[in-house]
Amino acid sequence: MSKKILAIDDEPHMLKLLERIITEKTSYTIMTLNNSLEIENVLNQNQFDLIISDLKMPGNDGLDILKMVKEKDRPEEVIIITAFGSIESATKAITMGAFDYITKPFKKEQIIHTIDRAMKCHCIKDKARKWKEILDTKPFSKAKDIFEVEYVKNMSEEIDCLPEMIAEETGIDIEKINTILKNY
Amino acid sequence: MKWLRNIISRGKSGNDTDLSIVREKFQIFRRLLYKHDNIIRMISDMEEKAQGEYLFDLHYIKSNLRKIQADTYDAIELMVMMGGDKYKSLEQVADNIFSDLEQIIPLTGTIREGDLVISYDKLGREQIRSVGSKNAQLGEMKSKLNLPVPEGFAISAWAYRLFVDSNNLQEKITDCLDTLNIRSSDDLISYGERMRGMVMQCTVPDEISSAILESCKKIQDNNAVNRFAMRSSALGEDSIHSFAGQYASILNVTPDKVIDKYKEVIAGKFTPQAIYYFLSQAMSEQKLAMSVACVEMIDARASGVVYTRNPIDPKDNGIMISSIWGLGKYLVDGKLSPDTFRVSRKEGTILSKAVSKKEIKLVLSENGGTCEKTVPIEEQESPSLNNDQLRELARYAVLLEEHYDSPQDIEFVVNKKGKIYLLQTRALRIFKSSTTNNEIDISKLEILAEGGVTISPGAGSGKIYHATSIDDLSEMPDKAVLVTPNSFPGIVTVMSRVNAIITEIGGLANHMATIAREFRVPTLGNIENIKHLNNDDEVTVDASKRVVYKGVIHKLIEARKGEVDLFSDLAIFEMLQNIMKTISPLNLLHPQALNFRPQNCQTIHDICRYIHQKVIEEMFEKAIQFGGTKKHGFKLNTEMPMEVRLIYLDQEPSVRSKGGYIEKEDLSSSPMIHFWEGIAKEGWPSVPLPPKFKRVEGPFVADGNIDDMPKFRETSFAILSRDYMICNLHMGYHFTTVEAMCTDEPDSNYIRMQWGEGGAMLEKRVRRINLITDITKSLGFENYGRGDYMDVALAYISESEIKIKLYLLGRLTMMSKQLDMALSNDEIALWYKEDIMKRLGIIIKSEKK
User: Tens digits of per-residue pLDDT, B752-794?
Assistant: First the structure.
């Protein structure tokens, strides 16, 4: 499934540029938000992999949004876009848990590279969180079930193999594999 | 040469400038160079951003422009302080340029107070901020280009502001816009209706209505006109956003209905498609003040659109003309497939002609408004324009494109007598995204339909969704392939939700086509046999190659994606590029060219260039005046038999030895250090002789009577700062002046060297000047002098290069001292030239080859 990005900026021209570059140059999908006051609603209704937010905006600014994400322990990585001269606030954003900041104007490659790094980081964190969940699950039989699901999903993703092949390799029941892949 | 003598004689006539004044001028000079560098730096930064590699926002553009504006006016003020009121005219030049910029990007954003109505005879494109683009261009065509434009007048943006204020409308509108959800078709329809209702309930203030009626009356009386067309000409419309067809045009209005229809045009700002367009393009509604065009209604035999270029193929050099019978609405709304013609730019030859079947036409009703009529069968398939009309239109097209210096989208009408009138011209957006040539194997793909016209290139896939009007669109799923019998205005409201569009009727020149290209939605038009495509069928539309395939073919979509100009069609990029056209090109190139005058500065870069040249000249003049008239400063301690006095502008020099001498180690002026190093390296010269030539009289004796020679300073001098030098060396019968700025900022750096006079006959002196000029040319200098006077300059190079060049100039100065005496023929001159170049380590071009 395509990874999702939310971009927030009070200046829609920047949103258009971000939308264009992400649509044309990456495999991610993007949703844009011009009014930062709507952020709470949008976050309540959606989950993203990455949020790209301008630092200075009327209503909620970039730091407010970052705080919102971190306080609610949401999974999104946050990249802050700043104007030249707001480096102090940008550094503050990093200490508050932003993935990175990028100073306007910036090169196409720079934003794509930063997004890719954030996505990789998000992916690793996501996996780590899942492992932690499995390790914390009791009793063992339930943990084993979850593990099997993850194992099958991973296998199908990485080698693109048929359910029968997975069954043969893992010894997991074929019907169970089909159910897992169907729900995936 | 003459001017230099004037300067010197002025100095001698007792009009001396004292050191404090020179120092003050030097400070102004430095500040001005600093401003100049800032402006150049900001312009080049913006140039870089306009290349498509960067993402930036409006704030970036505006803040840079404001800084450029402030620095430009500061630089002009400093220039006046430096050289006097003769430079004041630069202010007007800057005013004009910034007023042009204001049209592209309102730095102030206010509506200017002005006349409520303005006749086209008195309008030009410079009034775009008062009357909107449509009106301003109609005025420009009529009053400046003398083109056939119907009689008419503009109802200004200022009138709109009065209308809104007197009815307290703004707050109510803003409330509605803040509440509606742009992604909801229902919201766009219902809020749009509510806002239009609010406008229609308002009263047009008396002063506006009487001004409008009075103007109508004038046109009626003078031209026997009794019907008008009222069209939107909103501020911002046709600028970086096309707004094609988003606003209202009301045709065939009787004089008694003009005021009511004025309100209707204003209300047209709030149609669902117009709201969607300005909100999606991120424009402030308040800035889109609605000026209105009120023009004589032309009873159309035929109407159409001229594209001065092919909007989807910039390489196509033909002029594209589309036309239909009757009024143009059916063409621009996409209701009819028009006749299309390609006409050559130069000779007006008809390159191709595709006549379509035009069964219906829109005509004027007797009681006002319009009605549809069937076209007589014998006319249905005959061309709606004749060859003469096509050629006439092509002529207008070329003229307008040249006048505006960009491709144009022109609307026209032909009246019953066959006379052409132009109704509108605006910039035509060229689809710059090149489709890649990555061909994929299509042999196994199932074709569902093919043919038609590429309206917007690219490929997109999704589920088929049929719609015939805006009412059908609310149910449309996201990422659909929209199929319609013809274009209709509401399609714009789903532009960001569709992956492709197919229309049975319609060509390249309708409003929907323009918007589809703007939104980069692959669109195929005028294609038959698509009724069998059922809702929910998954298809891929290859608009570039005009084929509809079964299923979703990702590889095809990827292959059609543009690889270059990722951003160039986006509004903000177009805006920056237009801004750069106003500030960046350099038109003033040569300081001695006739056009090197303030009034010929067309861009900010020109102003900078002019000021840079002039401030250097002014500084030079002040310094020479000062240095040449009194024995100021300290003597340089040198072994050479010449006295050089040093005057410091920004420091107290270190004087170590008795008698007020400055050692060359203590020069503390970067340019002087390197120049003097070159001089010291050569030492006091003795001119080498060419081996195969007989020795002439020696030592060299001046030709003619020495008393007749103009006497320059008896003492040489140098005026110095840490990074500046003007050094005037009096060496026998000639003078050398070298001026240089040597900083870590290449934009500030320059060297100028002047050389004149001498003891020999003119012929020999000219030989020497030619010899030195040739050598300096090979060092990258350009000569601005003439005859026996050399004035070479080099600018914008790095600090290290400046130092090397100064060192070489120092050496060259000594090598060529009194050389003129020896240059009795060209052969000897050539030998010396090559000898000097060899000694200086300069590669001779012919040898290089």
Answer: 888 876 666 777 878 888 899 999 999 988 887 777 778 888 8
A11:B54 CB<8 A: no
Which residue has tokens 């659909």? B480
Same domain, A74 and A100: yes
Burial class of residue B635, CB neighbours in 10 A (0-12, 13-18, 19+): middle
Tokens 């499995």 correspond to A134
Whether B571 sits inside 8 A of A13 (CB atoms) is: yes
Range of A174's domain? 137-183
> Lowest-pLDDT range, B416-425, B617-626, B722-731, B800-809?
B617-626
Question: Which member of A12, A34, A105 has the closest CB to residue B55?
Answer: A105
Residues of B in contact with A13 (CB under 8 A): 57-58, 282, 570-572
Question: Beta strands of B576-654 (E only): which ranges?
Answer: 634-636, 644-648
Q: Measured in whole angstroms, how far is the alpha carbon of residue B320 from the centre of its chain? A: 25
pLDDT tens-digit readout, B342-386: 999 888 899 999 999 999 999 999 888 889 999 999 999 999 999
State the ipTM, two decimals: 0.83
Task: Choose among A112, A118, A123: nearest CA to A21.
Answer: A112
Q: Strand, helix or coil at B693?
A: coil
With CA atoms as reference, the chain B residue closest to A56 would be B59
**Inter-chain touch B60–A11, beta carbons under 8 Å:** no
Contact (CB<8Å) A105/B60 = yes
Residue B145: HSE in the Cβ half-sphere, 13 Å Cα cutoff: 23
Residues of B with CB under 8 A from a CB of A: 49, 53-60, 281-282, 561-562, 566-567, 570-572
The residue among A2, A10, A16, A52 with the most chain B CBs within 10 A of its CB, best to mutate, is A16
**Region B657-665 average pLDDT:** 77
Q: How many domains does chain A have?
A: 2
Task: Decide if A165 is inside a domain.
Answer: yes
Do B109 and B62 touch, CB atoms closer than 8 A? no
One domain for residues A110 and A89: yes
| Last residue of one domain, picked from the residues A126, A160, A175 | A126
**SS3 string of B66-80?**
HHHHHHHHHHHHHHH
Does any domain span residue A177?
yes
Distance from C-alpha of B652 to C-alpha of B675, rounded to nearest angstrom: 21
